[in-house]
């Protein structure tokens, strides 16, 4: 049993982890609680069931970070991408699939593998012995969630996203915005300039509130209790409680001086805080929201300085169990306190089918290497997989950590003709660099001295 890899959860991450580990010569047991224990979202007993959309998003591997992630997973022999390609539907530049046929075929391929066994039933505790990967996703069962919280500390495990939108720094108009912490707080110059500020006059604020109240909203899903949200109310709910509520909350204008107009006191201020160590991403402070995505982009682009904003992620609040991975996981996706336990998929703080499967791919390879007496390092940070794993295990700000899709803001900046007009060329430079690096990473594992 010492050479068996146990994987809890048969979603995208668990399925990919099992495939990768088994193909490296390790026996795998997938523990899947369905159908013994169901969820409100799943409809079948299949592994890798798609519970939301049927899209893997852009398949453009030259100009899109998600498409690049597709390319890397194909290069690494990923089962999820192989089955997605086999069941692709017409979707323009996106990769959409026949979800039922896709999940059925993933399940069949895993069950047919001589080194993979599926064991139905719920795992409710964190084992002390053996190599385990927990890939239980955003719908982790209550019992297992409690066990993880007991091990990691309740404050390190969230059961809901309270996501504020994230903006690419290079799309912010710095002729209107400025760096300053309220009352210039901080012992260092960096701390005193920790926030980006976007000012509003009274008319702009009133128009913003009107747009916020009129915007189309999504409904709360089953299991999202109103009591929880008292601590992180959507901005539109705050606005409904009074037109001045936001101006006395996250948009309060106190302690700030606009260097572009030092004699004019802003009526309200939207603040953005750095979201990663690279300084390429900034989140809009206190702006978690239930607005639909199209409405969000329209409303947030009415903020002075964000008229041309590009969003790495839009906001939301929904049920989603995830770890504060920057404080808990090492770069092998292992729980620092319990290195025989790895986590993969959405529970680590990545968002999306492809991102989840990619973390499963890495966890499977890393765990198999451990069992076989070898070592697989995390991919370099200039690859899509590397950018994701480095973000969730240390690149993100732990205090504001929220689930993230892959995007070029997670990559080390690259020198190319910049500006908005040069974006396509810049993205191509990112993907060219990533592909070369990823090929080298794969090649190194194939060499006898790779460990």
TrEMBL record:
EC number: 2.1.1.74
SUPFAM superfamilies reported in the protein's UniProt record: FAD/NAD(P)-binding domain
GO cellular component assignments: cytosol
Binding-site residues, FAD: 9-14
Cofactor: FAD
Main subcellular location: cytoplasm
Ranges for domain MnmG N-terminal: 6-373
Alphabetical list of NCBIfam families matching this protein: gid_trmFO, PRK05335.1
Described function: NAD-binding protein involved in the addition of a carboxymethylaminomethyl (cmnm) group at the wobble position (U34) of certain tRNAs, forming tRNA-cmnm(5)s(2)U34.
Family: Belongs to the MnmG family. TrmFO subfamily.
Protein name, as recorded: Methylenetetrahydrofolate--tRNA-(uracil-5-)-methyltransferase TrmFO
Organism of provenance: Roseinatronobacter ekhonensis
């Amino acid at each position: 049993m010492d050479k068996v890899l146990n994987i809890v959860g048969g979603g995208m991450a668990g399925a990919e982890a099992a495939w990768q580990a088994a193909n490296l010569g390790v026996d795998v047991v997938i523990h899947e609680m369905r159908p013994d224990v169901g969820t409100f979202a799943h409809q079948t007993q299949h592994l890798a069931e798609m519970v939301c959309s049927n899209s893997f998003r852009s398949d453009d591997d030259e100009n899109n970070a998600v498409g690049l992630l597709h390319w890397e997973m194909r290069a690494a022999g990923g089962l999820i991408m192989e089955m997605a390609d086999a069941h692709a539907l017409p979707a323009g530049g996106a990769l959409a699939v026949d979800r039922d046929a896709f999940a059925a075929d993933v399940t069949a391929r895993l069950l047919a593998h001589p080194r993979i066994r599926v064991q139905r039933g719920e795992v409710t505790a964190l084992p002390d012995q053996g190599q385990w990967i927990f890939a239980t996703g955003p719908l982790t069962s209550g019992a297992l969630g409690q066990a993880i919280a007991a091990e990691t500390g309740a404050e390190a495990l969230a059961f809901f996203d309270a996501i504020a939108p994230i903006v690419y720094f290079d799309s912010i108009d710095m002729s209107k915005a400025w760096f300053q912490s309220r009352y210039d707080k901080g012992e260092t110059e960096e701390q005193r300039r920790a926030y980006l500020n976007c000012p509003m006059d009274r008319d702009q604020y009133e128009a913003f509130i009107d747009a916020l109240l009129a915007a189309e909203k999504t409904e709360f899903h089953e299991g999202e209790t109103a009591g929880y949200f008292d601590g992180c109310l959507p901005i539109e709910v705050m606005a409904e409680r009074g037109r001045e509520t936001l101006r006395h909350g996250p948009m309060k204008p106190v302690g700030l001086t606009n260097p572009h107009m030092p004699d004019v006191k802003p009526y309200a201020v939207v603040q953005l805080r750095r979201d990663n160590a690279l300084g390429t991403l900034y989140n809009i402070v206190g702006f978690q929201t239930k607005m639909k995505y199209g409405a969000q982009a329209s409303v947030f682009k009415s903020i002075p300085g964000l008229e041309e904003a590009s969003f790495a992620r839009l906001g939301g609040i929904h049920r989603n169990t995830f770890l504060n991975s920057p404080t808990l996981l090492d770069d092998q996706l292992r729980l620092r306190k319990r290195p025989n336990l790895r986590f993969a998929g959405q529970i680590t703080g990545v968002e999306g089918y492809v991102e989840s499967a990619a973390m499963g791919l890495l966890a499977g390879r890393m765990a198999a290497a451990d069992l076989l007496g070898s070592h697989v390092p995390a991919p370099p940070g200039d690859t899509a997989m590397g950018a994701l794993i480095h973000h969730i295990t240390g690149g993100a700000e732990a205090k504001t950590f929220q689930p993230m899709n892959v995007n070029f803001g997670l990559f080390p900046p690259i020198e190319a003709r910049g500006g908005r007009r040069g974006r396509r060329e810049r993205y191509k430079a990112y993907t060219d660099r990533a592909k070369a690096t990823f090929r080298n990473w794969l090649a190194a594992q194939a060499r006898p001295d790779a460990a």
